[in-house]
Amino acid sequence: MKRRFNPKKSLGRPLAALAATGGAALGPWLAPSVWGGRQRPGEPPLLRGNIPLLGNALPFSHNATRFLADCRREHGDVFTVYVARSRMTFVCDPLSYSTVLRCPALQFEPVADEVMERAFAFPNIRTEVDLDRLDGTARKYLKGEHLGEISERMCGAVHEFVRDGGNGQLEGASGELPLYHFIWDAIFTAGTNIIFGHGMACPAVAQAFQDFDRDFPTLVAGMPKFLARDGVAGLDALAQPLSELGEAPSKWLRERQKVILDLDAKRRGHAHSAALWAVHANTIPAVFWTLAHLLNDPAATAAVCDELGVGRTAADAPVTVDELGTMSVLQSAAQESLRITTGSMAVRRATEDTTIETRSGTFAVRAGDQVCMAPQLTHHDPTVFEDPEAYRYDRFLDRGEGLPQFHKEGERAGFAFMPFGAGKHTCPGRFFAINEVKIMTATLLRQFAFEPIDGPLPPFDYRRVGLGVFPPNDELVVRWRRRDA
Hints:
The protein starts with 6 loop residues before the first helix and ends with a strand. By secondary structure, the protein is α+β, with helices and mostly antiparallel strands. The strands form four sheets. A six-stranded mixed β-sheet has the order 1-2-3-9-6-4. A three-stranded antiparallel β-sheet has the order 5-13-12. A two-stranded antiparallel sheet has the order 7-8. It is built from 18 helices and 13 strands. The chain has helices at about 5-20, 55-60, 65-75, 95-100, 110-120, 130-140, 145-165, 180-195, 205-220, 230-240, 250-260, 265-280, 285-295, 300-305, 320-325, 330-340, 375-380, 430-445; strands at about 45, 80-85, 85-90, 105, 175-180, 345-350, 355-360, 360-365, 370-375, 405-410, 410, 450, 475-480. It has a domain at about 125-465: CATH 1.10.630.10. About 45% of the residues lie in helices and about 10% in strands. The longest helix has 19 residues, at about 145-165.
């Protein structure tokens, strides 16, 4: 019978034996760095964990929301957690976020550079690429006047995918559908082709992206590459096709290509892989959860279908860009799903020893430490969101008095809802992402009647903690029939 690994038992016996010899043989295992260091005067409470080097990695990766909520109850709104060789200071009070974001010693750029090196095999990217110009292409072409054009192309691509049977998944007048698998196919195919150019969403690219995305959390955590062999191979497989663009790519990618054109093909492919991951990794689960929550709530389904004109509009009529702006009920439903399913964190790196001002007090932070804001805690805070575990499709709906504002302890909490980050580094693709959710959901609800989901929704895949929307850990099969059948 295979023995189950017990960290305390497995590590406790050898350490006890060594301690009996006077501790001389413990060597590097007693080094403070292995256990997260010592708490210095003025620093937040330090939670070292039980396993050298890993610290609290196991409970953190198992369910970070629950782990951080427990830490908050015991230690207050500010505490430091040692996780896999990193010291992470969490600020859990949304009313203190503004001072954290304004602290000049806390910078986003070192965090982003580390992600590019670890996950996308692109070290020292700032020495080769004008990142301000690269970021500017997304901020220009994914909002404002250009948002309508790319959204219109997405409307057409999604409609075409569904009309043509969704890769064989929507054949006949009725049937069953593995919802997450279908959403993955639809968004990846439509989005990749309209953004990177037609023909880019081939089976080989789709498989390589899946392999890379599956191992992305392991890569970003800086774990040894042999633990993410499929992810490393997936990235290499993406590099060659993504080094060039397909037919009729978006203006965003055309301008992005100009910025990195001087790079060799492999590095250009890795740079574009970052864009591909940013486009799909969170949008796909966001669309899934929006549909899943709607189908699990008949009242929500009815309200959204009424707004979409189901029964009054031709079932096969494509969604238009003009309609997207009128879908306030659907937008609220999507935001409520994001509130419940987002596990992202806003992370900054201390570039020097500094202090952070919070409502709980002033705390010292060491150079190199990460300072993290975990919106998921606020999203599930009953003092901010009434009955936070319940799905309320109209929670974010304008009821004639303007969009709802949320408060904590009598103060308006401007950072109560943060699925896309905060400050000047808020996700530039957030407007297009919400439009994608609307387009996919509206297209499906207009063309198909789905049986309500009876029972609980799938659990989250917590391996993606800190990286955005949690994917489902299990598939969800739904029954459908064509409305025009």
